[in-house]
Amino acid sequence: MCLAQLFLQSGSEYDCISALGELGLVEFRDLNPSVSSFQRRFVSEIKRCDEMERILGFLLTEIQKAKMSVPEEDEVPVAPPPRHVLEIMEQLQRLEMELSEVAKNKEKLQRNLQELTEYTHMLRITHSFVHSRTRYEALGPQYEEFPALETDSGPSATGMQRLGAKLGFVSGLIQRVKVEAFERMLWRVCKGYTILSYSDERLTDCDTVDISDSVVFLISFWGDQLGQKVQKICDCYRCHLYPHPETDAERADVLDSLRTRIQDLNNVLHRTEDYLRQVLQKASESVFSWVVQVKKMKAIYHILNLCSFDVTNKCLIAEVWCPVQDLQALRLGLEEGSRKGDATVPSFVNRIPSSETPPTLVRTNKFTSGFQSIVEAYGVGDYREVSPAPYTMVTFPFLFAVMFGDLGHGFVMTLFALWMVLTETSQKKKRCRNEIWETFFSGRYILLLMGLFSMYTGLIYNDCFSKSLNVFGSSWNLSPMFSNHIWTNKTLQTNALLMLDPNVSGVFRGPYPLGIDPIWNLAVNRLSFLNSYKMKMSVILGVMHMTFGVVLSVFNHLHFGRRYDVLLLFLPELLFLVSLFGYLVFMIVFKWIAFSARDSSGAPSILIHFINMFVMQGKDMAPLFPGQSGLQIFLVLVAMLSVPVLLFGKPLHLYWLYRGSKGLHRRRGYERVRRVSEDDSSAPTYDEEDEEEGAEELCRRDPLPKQLDMADCLLHQSIHTIEFCLGCISNTASYLRLWALSLAHAQLSEVLWAMVLRLGFDGSSRLGVLVLVPVFGLFVVLTVSILLIMEGLSAFLHALRLHWVEFQNKFYRGTGVKFVPFDFSLLPAPFELNGSQSGDRVIEEPLHREGPESRPPPLQGSLRSRLLFTPRLLRR
Amino acid sequence: MVSHSLALPMICFTTLWGLVGIVAPFLVPKGPNRGVIVTSLILTAVCCYLFWLIAILAQANPLFGPQLKNETIWYLRYFWE
Question: Which residues are listed as membrane-spanning (chain A) (predicted)?
């Protein structure tokens, strides 16, 4: 990774940046950190892009409301040159205006339609009121009777005219929930001189909700004053009032005219909708490319804002981090950009030396990217540090499988992962929005490996849906127990449990060749054997894993030119680990090999021997092997001695370097500058250049007084020592979770078998088949949900913890900054921004980071987002 | 209920994982992924061989035998032998 300067010709800078964005090779640095977002050069262009994005968002929602699909083209368009931008802007604005006008018109028409339909209903229902008044046997209890009207079948006003008062009518619609209050109010105000009739009939053939919740009412009253009061009350209750026709003929007329008007309105509405659809259809054809183009444009302007403008040379200067391998491709890209932009002078690249630590780039393909992301979730590696990812690719699924080990469950997991892998091209096109599915999908290769390893460990544990496979024939034989007359038929009848004795010859004939003997599945004391086996296995695997981690630190020391660290850090660490825990592993294996059933009564407990080794007691205990006590004393001494070497070695060495080298004669002409601080990661060396034996180029740090440096160095080293030594013990014990989880898994699996599936086999009648089917369904559901998903996630998490803490803290720093190139394919997908378009995008700069000095955000904050395997990190 | 030797499986599995871990890395075609594939092969061989080895060594000299129910013993006696 190197720092490079790009000199972009003033006319062609847009095209050059566009070409670079397509290539996705470099990361831009901000050359104007002190300028606020609103003062940068290209703010107006970005605002224009924002405006276009807003219109596009509105367009997309309209298209989605009309339930049309947007065709996504396979070929992604490039960013348009600035002269095309105005055209696109114009088109978009025109479309927006058209759409909003059409929408407004449509709304108005629909409101009209609603009113007309209400009027129709009202007429129809009040017609039935008027007629039903003539027959009081058909009336319900709510109707008030005015005796004078009962003889009328015709116009209802004549009866009242006889009394010399004018009968008025108010009719309309009111919401159903307000009817009772309305009635009460009318009664109180008008003192009973009004008649309110309303219908409970459900209004059909309506589109809007309002109508169906309304009731039609008819108020009849005497006199004008009462009429005014009624009017006011109706206004207060927000009724929709319509004029009540006096005669039947008038009513029929109005009904007719209403019907024709409604028909007309419906026609117009249909045509408006058709027109709207047409407009949206035409827009939807090009909306995809517009969205992509606008996004790319905006990104380019963001990047242009980061560059500094060199007024004298009429060119733009940009600083980028570029991988050394890609410099040639960068040059070609710039040339192409200059050519497209018709520049007189081509833009070029100039590599500059830098003392800053570049960001870390790890190239991954679709297989390794999942593993890289789970390593990076802990922390991005320092620049050119040993990455645990290639080793994690095997050890992580392996440790998962040790905890998950079941042939059947592993098989199901493998099938699922295989399906995802084989259909990955079509799945990628579908782009399902569900985030949990995206998580599983981006980890499909991890799942595949986990499943395959689980099948292997399930084979070794001899556990397939909690049953064992007897492929080779069990090693334990029963007949010698009978033929040697240790057991008789009578013993069988009297004792419920009997234990096979390996001391009797012929009972045990050699270990089962592949994994655990199947007879243990039938044994009652199965767990005592399995626990001992799995605990020892966990310790062995743990010690080997940790030793591997310590050995990996050698590569780090050698690469960063710290030869002395190999002697002063690696060697004491390794000796400490191996002399104590390597010896424990040796004892375990020795006991397996050397002690058999003959001396089972006198077999020593390894744990007690181990503890006694530290306490230097236990001389009266039978030794495991001759010379054990002497060896143990030697090993404890070695371990004890390596602690002070670890603690003081490096500080003393650095002190000697700082003080003592003034007296050293070196062949170099200039004075050596040396590094006095402990911090290794921020002093890069030019890896390709001159690295003579023993001579290192060190950068001068700011001149701190010697005292402070030594204290800092000592403190750092003592923390490291304590962490390592205590950590050895606690980490070894931590690996016992391998045993714990595999035990839990096996027991859960057995419970499901015994409590669920076996019940289905119990039926002795023919109906047992009918019982078996739902029982099996329940078994499958519980297996998938509890054993596969829950236990799978749990084992995944614990295997991840074992890697992150126990393995990586032996060698991995993980304090680096990730290299994020300016790449159009890393922008969020075009239609993800559907609902979240807003005008405040000017302030956001999604593609840029403040520079390599900034540390990555704390683990908790970013853990969730990183752990969710965002697909944006998939590079190819 | 057969007798198994220790030597035969030892030879078989050692050669099997030896092939995977030592011989197969030389057969990987040259390409950008060669290093990763070789690392994975070696690690797989080591892990899987170790796991199998632990399983067989733990059973090689058992200090106690399985404790069975008398019904199981009766069944095994007549069906397995």
Answer: 398-422, 443-461, 537-555, 567-594, 633-658, 767-790
